[in-house]
């Protein structure tokens, strides 16, 4: 029986870039995804804030998996567009991206993602993204691609 959540979790586990960054998939359910990342010095910009590229990566990834979790079997997901509002400099120990699918369409899905900076017990909204994700029907993820990349890297 097809399980879209397992498919999305398996896809996430093959994300080499996310593994390199050190992200964690905190939760995933149909239409929703939460991802966290510890803020390390190498992920900050010149003022010591989490880099906008890191924040955007988290938001885009959470949005993509929120949408992917609603898509049919034998499909994959790609980002078509997004807009990010950087609301407040992200400082603290960690970032958390929470994405919610607003409209899951047959071809296009609209998703909102919020990124929070966590500093001790305090949380602050650092960024908000609105994204459009495309369902690539009939083009399921190919697990052999990441396996081949890993083999090539080791050689």
TrEMBL record:
Pfam families, sorted: 4HBT
Keywords on record: Hydrolase
Alphabetized CDD domains for the sequence: PaaI_thioesterase (cd03443)
InterPro entries assigned: HotDog_dom_sf (IPR029069), PAAI_dom (IPR003736), Thioestr_dom (IPR006683)
Domain Thioesterase per the UniProt entry, residue ranges: 47-121
GO MF, one annotated term: fatty acyl-CoA hydrolase activity
Catalytically driven reaction(s): a fatty acyl-CoA + H2O = a fatty acid + CoA + H(+); a medium-chain fatty acyl-CoA + H2O = a medium-chain fatty acid + CoA + H(+); a long-chain fatty acyl-CoA + H2O = a long-chain fatty acid + CoA + H(+)
EC number assigned by the record: 3.1.2.20
Assigned protein family: Belongs to the YigI thioesterase family.
PANTHER family according to UniProt: 1,4-DIHYDROXY-2-NAPHTHOYL-COA THIOESTERASE 1 (PTHR43240), MEDIUM_LONG-CHAIN ACYL-COA THIOESTERASE YIGI (PTHR43240:SF20)
Protein name listed in UniProt: Medium/long-chain acyl-CoA thioesterase YigI
Gene source species: Oricola thermophila
